[in-house]
Amino acid sequence: MAILEDISQAVQKGRSKEVVALVQQAIDEGMEAKDIIDAGLLKGMGELGVRFKNNEVYVPEVLMAAKALGRGTELIKGKLVEEGVKPVGKVVIATVRGDLHDIGKSLVRMMMEGSGLEVVDLGVDVPEDVIVAAVNEHKPQILALSSLLTTTMEQQSVVIEALKAAGLRDQVKVMVGGAPLTQDYSDKIGADAYAPDAYSAAEVAKAFVSE
Amino acid sequence: MSKSIVTIHIKEGEQPLLCDVLTKHQIRFSQPCGGRGLCKKCLVSVKGSCIFLNHTKPIEDSQGFKRVQACQTRVTGVIEVQVPKDQEAVVAGQGDALDLTYDDGKPGLGIAIDIGTTTISVGLYDLLEEKLLQITHVHNLQQAHGADVLSRIDYANRGGLVELQNEIVSQLEEILESQLKTVEKQPAEVLRCVITGNTTMLHLLCGLNPKGIGVAPFTPVSLFGKTKPMDTLFPAFIRAQLYLAPCISAYVGADITCGMHLKNMGLNQKETILLVDIGTNGEMALCHQGKILCCATAAGPAFEGALIECGMSAAPGAIEALRLDAGRVSVKTIANQKPSGICGSGLISAVSALLSAGVISGSGQLLGESHAYTNAIVQSNDGLRFTLCEQVYLSQKDIRNIQLAKAAIGAGIQTLCQLARVSYSEIDHLWLSGNFGSSLIVKDAANIGLIPDELVPKSSGIGNCAYGGAVAALFVCKRRKEMEILAAHTKEISLSSSPEFMENYIDQMAFYEE
């Protein structure tokens, strides 16, 4: 359908108004919400994610696209519930205690939302007990932790230990990321996955929920 | 590049990392990524028994040497290593001539020291004759533990505090010993010493735990501004008083206090002055109508050549300017040597020229077509590259790293002025300090958005004003008190929790609006 491709393109160009108009038009034409989401909005975000991973587009473009995606999704939310469409999975995400970096974590959230996941964002500088409580409350399949400083990455291991102590470690996959991290470090602290960039993070999360 | 060959033996049964072996043998190189295998700045050629980590498979040259990352290689037996001959960084001069009243003159010697994360400057002075006797600029040897303050803090956290302190103390001792020897003087003739530097460097010098600087809410153990006997740190200097210049916060250090003092930023200053020190951390201060606001922003080490694939420090052979003219690419290097990499000022010049020629789009994308320089574009596995000359290129990823760095500085300036309610037209002077800040071409810096266009005519590079301020306090003791008042009067705004900064930062990531 041409209109779905138009929606995908408008998302990639970050044109919120155009996205809203096109989504409304698609609804009026009687399309199913699930198709509009999957073949339009999420497809656009997915394609942008690939271009982001290849450095062809950068943070500002992704933020614009995420905003457009959000506006489009908002319009269609009620219809999704009507059709009984559920998110593919749930993620709790946070930047760990001592670290105030927001952008990287937010990019991951946007890419994950762009993959159809429901994401609970706890914000930055989040202490381990708050993270554990959120895992307990929201029962996500995935916990994603971010840290941008060499001095705060240690805190990710503190969170994992706190999950163990609360008896929740087996109930959630833990993903870690952030500039100073490596696969080795992720293995060392016993995380389930490391993702080097926002797009890969969304791919890994999708793979986890479809297991 | 000239090379020396070193043969190294290790103990049986041990498999140490090559970088640790080299450091132990006093072979130093910088490891901006802190040994995580990311920056490829510790490349050396090695022959003999070693194993390569993380599935790297280095290629062997005709003499049997393999090019490896020292941090990703374990030594298992006898090896032979070729290391690049130590490169001394070119350090800009002291900047402004000092206008000083030497009212504290007593016969004896004085020492001024600026401990930068990257570079250390040490000067020996005759206090009575008011004369510079010796000056030394060297790399900070702690660089082996990472390029930025955070990796040093991390190293200290992992039990390395004593090692880091010993490293800086003995490096300074060696320099001072050699300076004194050259002028045939004794340590006991030294009466005063003033040391400045960023908050972390001063912590490491004094052996104070820098842990609190590394995590929010960023609390240092000390902000200094203290005098103590010099022999508490340097035992040979039994008669000298050591003054540690005052810091403002965890990330706005004594280097900025000294710089502000030198440029007469203070309560009675009538002009509006913006001081920006561009290093791994961009620190800046704005003085307007008797009020001073400051902030620090993490630019990352891109402008020092780290995290740039062909990046290097500002040493001979570094590309410092790029010219594009009617389809032809030409480069200018420091000391006109054969180009071996690109330094910070070269990056600014190159990106500016490529933007103006339409090779880089406003959003920062390197374009493969529709410009006059398609011949220089090469497709690699990691995307497009622009060939600057035979050995040196700029990759798409490099450009993204430069965008992050310049957005941090650009948004820092913007946010500081916004929160102080000062418009660019009200600013009388923009002083750019630091080696990089002093050497960049202001017009190019504005073209890529590092500094606002409106400030170009008001900008000047002022060299290492932190060191200049330390010298000022060395000669005139009452300047210490003035600095302490200045530091206490300066208000820091925290950018990492400022919504204005986040918005500006994202806006400034692009070069131009498309």
**Class computed from helices, strands and strand pairing of chain B:** alpha/beta
Tally of alpha and pi helices of chain A: 9
Structural class of chain A, by secondary structure, is alpha/beta
Tell me what the CATH architecture of the largest domain in chain A is: 3-Layer(aba) Sandwich
Strand content of chain B: 25-35%
Instruction: Classify the helix fraction of chain B into a percent range.
Output: 25-40%
Shape of chain A: globular
State the major sheet of chain B. Answer: 6 strands, mixed
Beta-strand segment tally of chain B = 22
CATH topology of the largest domain in chain A: Rossmann fold
Succession of helices and strands of chain A: HHHHEHEHEHEHEH
* Number of distinct beta strands of chain A: 5
Q: Calculate Rg of chain A over CA atoms.
A: 17 Å
Termini separation of chain B: 43 Å
Oligomer type: heterodimer
Q: How many structural domains does the protein architecture of chain A include?
A: 2
Q: Mind sketching the topology for me?
A:
The complex is a heterodimer of chains A (211) and B (514).
Chain A: H1 2-12, H2 16-28, H3 33-53, H4 59-83, E1 90-95, H5 103-113, E2 118-121, H6 128-138, E3 142-146, H7 154-165, E4 173-177, H8 183-188, E5 193-194, H9 198-209
Parallel strand pairs in A: 1-2, 1-3, 3-4, 4-5
Helix pairs in contact in A: 1-2, 1-3, 2-4, 3-4, 5-9, 6-7
Chain B: E1 3-8, H1 18-24, E2 43-52, E3 66-69, E4 73-84, E5 109-115, E6 119-126, E7 131-139, H2 149-182, E8 190-197, H3 199-206, H4 211-214, E9 226-229, E10 241-244, H5 254-262, E11 273-278, E12 281-288, E13 291-298, E14 318-325, E15 328-333, E16 341-342, H6 344-356, E17 377-380, E18 383-387, E19 393-395, H7 396-419, E20 429-433, H8 434-439, H9 442-447, E21 459-461, H10 465-475, H11 478-489, E22 490-492, H12 499-509
Parallel strand pairs in B: 5-8, 8-10, 11-20, 13-22, 14-16, 20-21
Antiparallel strand pairs in B: 1-4, 2-3, 2-4, 5-6, 6-7, 9-10, 11-12, 12-13, 14-15, 17-18, 18-19
Helix pairs in contact in B: 2-3, 5-10, 5-11, 7-12
